[in-house]
What we know:
By secondary structure, the chain is mainly α. It has one domain (2-357). 68% of the residues lie in helices and 4% in strands. The chain has 14 helices and three strands. A three-stranded antiparallel β-sheet has the order 1-2-3. Helix 1 packs antiparallel against helix 11 (256-287), helix 4 (66-81) runs parallel beside helix 6 (135-151) and helix 5 runs parallel beside helix 7. The longest helix is centred in the last third of the chain and has 32 residues, at 256-287. The radius of gyration is 24 Å and the shape is globular. Residues 357-361 have low confidence and may be disordered.
Amino acid sequence: MRRLFVGLVCVLIGVGVQMVHSASLTSSPGRPEAVFLNRHLTFLAISVVCGFAASVLPAALLRQNATRLLVVLVLLLVAVLIPGVGTRVNGAQRWLRLGGMSLQPSELGRIILPIFAAKTLTDIRSGTGFSLRTLPRTLLPLLIVLPLVVTEPDLGATVFLAVGYVAALFIGGWPLRYFVGCTVLTLPAAVSLLALKSYQMKRITGFMAAWQDLSLAPWQIRQSLMSLGSGGLEGTGIGGGWQKLSYLPEANTDFVFAVIGEELGLSGTLAVVIIWMGVFLTGRAVMRPLRRDSFEWILGSTLVIQIVLQALANVAVVTAMVPPKGVPHPFISYGGTNLLVNIVSVGLIVGLSRQRPVPDGPTAEERQTDAERAKQLNSDESLCQPC
């Protein structure tokens, strides 16, 4: 099952290489598309090396360094916001330039935050147990990281980081009453974020208008739906699409799924969706032998869900099921930090699934139950003593 999981991911990566090359074609073929392909292959090579390294990391090492990784993430997010250090593109300051490479620190949070959440949950469960006193310790990473990402601004990354962290808490058995309480307290702040920028509200209103009159829809949505519709059942063939020629924006990144729909047709898009279903099922299957309260189970399951959710979000944006937002398609969109994070996540999933975690010791509830049993046993023995 582990080999099947990795094999399905490799199929998606292969599709990505082909579609990045095809989606980067212009009306004047030549150097530009070769540049995109060469850069993507470079990103892919670096990502595969890092993913292999992640697959051999001991889970204990990740757990011991969870706090250090969180500190590094916070420092990188602060560095991005410093003028002259972070790079501003289209009004957003989200990248760090390192020579000819760029790094988006918020993407690293999709790995670091689940690691910290898994460590925190296992430590609390093996210690005092869940209580109100453990709430600050559990929620502190979100209170530090999310405001920094919002300031960039990057509302999409903020939502993804929050969803990933909440998924880790849910998988780790965080009490439901805390979810309800935190949702009630944070809901006003979440709603207010949507009203911070006029362009964000414009995206939402444009999305609503698209379902009433397509001519009122945002340009990206109109071109995306036209690409999907023009492909028909079998598509125009690899390289035969027209929408990518200056009509479809971000054709090799956020809207590469629309290019698949135009050039491979409905059969191609359905094949990609089926492969993603296989990735989800095999990813969950490789984690099944692990203990449900272990660090390995919480982290591995969260990473599987995060990758699939990102793919689902990209398809939903391209098909106008949700308001438009820049969401790359994992393994298929043009490479960068997102490709690196996703392949490293796969490496971590493979490595975690190989390990058999040592029991963390009895939880607070188990110790209390054992104490009550011992007390009852002593009481029973005293009744059996002769007068």
